[in-house]
C-alpha cells in the first residue's frame, strides 16, 4: 500500500473558526480559539495521522486590513503559508454574508494556484446552507465545498476522508507520535493570552503579548511557569491586574486549569504584567516576541 502525505493551509478572515476546525480535526486542542478577532497571530501546524497517510494542517492568521506592523506580519504570514502547500481550505462563516476580507482570502487562494476547497463553517447556525454558500462560491474557482460545524464537530468525517485521499504520494514529514511542531513555550504563552482575551474587553486584547521567561519541573513534579504579560499602556496594565489583583488571579487560575490538562500534572503559574509602549510597531521587539517576517 502506498503512503500519502501533504500540507493543507487553512485560510480565511478572522473569526470564521479556523483554529476551532484545526482542533476538531485533530481531536485535541493545540491552537487557542476565542470570539475575539485576530486571536491567531502565528501559523500553527497540526498533524493528523492515519495508517496510510499524514495530513499536515497549517492554521494561519486571519486575513484583515492591517493597521500595525504586527498586523502586517500576520497577513504576510498567511500569504506565505498559502504558497507551497498541496491544497488550501478557504474557511468561511456561512451564517454571515461575505465580507471584503473573505474576498481577500479568496484572492489569496487564487494566487496560490493550489487546489482550493471551500469550507462552510458554522453550518449548524443556519438553514438552507446551499443558498447561504452560493455567494461564497462566486469568490473563487473552488474544486469542492463542504458544510461543517467545527464547534459541534459535525461534517468532519467526509472532509477528513476526502482530504486524506487527495494527498499526494510521499513519505511522512513528521514522526507518528507528533501532533504539532509548535514550541512548548509558545503553546504555554498562547494559553495564557487566550485567557486574557476571554477575560478583558475593549482595546486591551490586541495590545497583549505573553513571554514565557521560565518553565521548569520542580522536585515535587510540579511544572513551574513564570511568564510576563506585556501591554502598551499603564491603563491596560491596571485592567489586567484588576482591583486588588482580582483579574490577574482569574486569568492565572483559568490558564492553570488549561495547562494542567495539557501537562497532566500540577502547574504553578507566576504571572507578571509590564508596559512596553507601542510594541506592535517596533520591529526588534516583534522579533523578540517571535513575529519573524516570513518573506
Describe the structure.
- By secondary structure, this protein is an alpha/beta fold.
- It has two domains: 4-166, Rossmann fold (3-Layer(aba) Sandwich), CATH 3.40.50.300; 184-288, GMP Synthetase, Chain A, domain 3 (2-Layer Sandwich).
- Helices cover 35% and strands 22% of the residues.
- The chain is built from nine helices and nine strands.
- It has helices at residues 18-26, 69-82, 100-112, 129-137, 156-166, 184-199, 234-241, 246-263, 283-288; strands at residues 4-11, 44-49, 53-59, 87-93, 116-121, 144-147, 209-217, 223-231, 267-275.
- It is globular.
- It starts with a strand and ends in a 7-residue tail after the last helix.
Concise structural overview:
With 295 residues, this protein is of the alpha/beta class. It has nine helices and nine strands.
Architecture blueprint of SSEs:
Blueprint: E1 4-11, H1 18-26, E2 44-49, E3 53-59, H2 69-82, E4 87-93, H3 100-112, E5 116-121, H4 129-137, E6 144-147, H5 156-166, H6 184-199, E7 209-217, E8 223-231, H7 234-241, H8 246-263, E9 267-275, H9 283-288
Parallel strand pairs: 1-3, 1-4, 4-5, 5-6, 8-9
Antiparallel strand pairs: 2-3, 7-8
Which key terms come to mind for this protein?
globular, alpha/beta, Rossmann fold, 22% strand, six-stranded mixed β-sheet, 295 residues, GMP Synthetase, Chain A, domain 3, 9 helices, three-stranded mixed β-sheet, 2 domains, single chain
Amino acid at each position: 500500500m502506498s503512503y500519502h502525505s501533504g500540507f493543507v493551509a487553512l485560510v480565511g478572515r478572522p473569526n470564521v473558526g479556523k483554529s476551532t476546525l484545526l482542533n476538531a480535526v485533530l481531536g485535541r486542542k493545540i491552537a487557542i480559539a476565542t470570539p475575539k478577532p485576530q486571536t491567531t497571530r502565528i501559523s500553527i501546524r497540526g498533524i493528523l495521522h492515519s495508517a496510510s497517510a499524514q495530513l499536515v494542517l497549517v492554521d494561519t492568521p486571519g486575513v484583515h486590513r492591517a493597521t500595525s506592523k504586527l498586523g502586517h506580519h500576520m497577513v504576510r504570514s498567511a500569504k506565505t503559508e498559502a504558497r507551497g502547500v498541496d491544497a488550501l481550505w478557504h474557511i468561511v462563516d456561512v451564517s454571515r454574508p461575505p465580507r471584503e476580507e473573505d474576498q481577500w482570502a479568496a484572492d489569496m487562494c487564487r494566487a496560490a494556484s493550489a487546489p482550493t476547497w471551500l469550507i462552510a463553517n458554522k453550518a449548524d447556525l443556519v438553514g438552507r446552507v446551499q443558498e447561504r454558500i452560493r455567494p461564497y462560491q462566486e469568490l473563487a474557482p473552488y474544486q469542492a465545498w463542504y458544510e461543517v460545524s467545527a464547534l459541534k464537530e459535525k461534517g468532519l468525517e467526509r472532509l477528513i476522508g476526502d482530504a486524506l485521499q487527495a494527498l499526494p504520494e510521499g513519505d511522512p514529514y513528521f514522526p507518528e507520535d507528533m501532533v504539532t511542531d509548535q514550541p512548548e513555550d509558545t503553546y504555554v504563552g498562547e494559553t495564557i493570552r487566550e485567557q486574557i482575551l476571554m477575560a478583558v474587553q475593549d482595546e486591551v486584547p490586541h495590545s497583549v503579548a505573553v513571554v514565557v521567561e521560565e518553565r521548569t519541573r520542580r522536585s515535587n513534579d510540579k511544572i513551574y511557569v513564570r511568564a510576563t504579560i506585556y501591554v502598551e499602556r499603564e491603563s491596560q496594565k491596571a485592567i489586567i491586574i484588576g482591583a486588588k489583583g482580582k483579574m490577574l488571579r482569574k486569568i492565572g487560575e483559568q490558564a492553570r486549569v488549561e495547562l494542567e490538562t495539557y501537562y497532566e500534572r500540577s502547574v504553578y503559574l507566576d504571572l507578571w504584567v509590564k508596559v512596553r509602549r507601542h510594541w506592535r510597531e517596533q520591529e526588534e521587539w516583534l522579533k523578540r516576541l517571535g513575529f519573524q517576517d516570513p518573506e
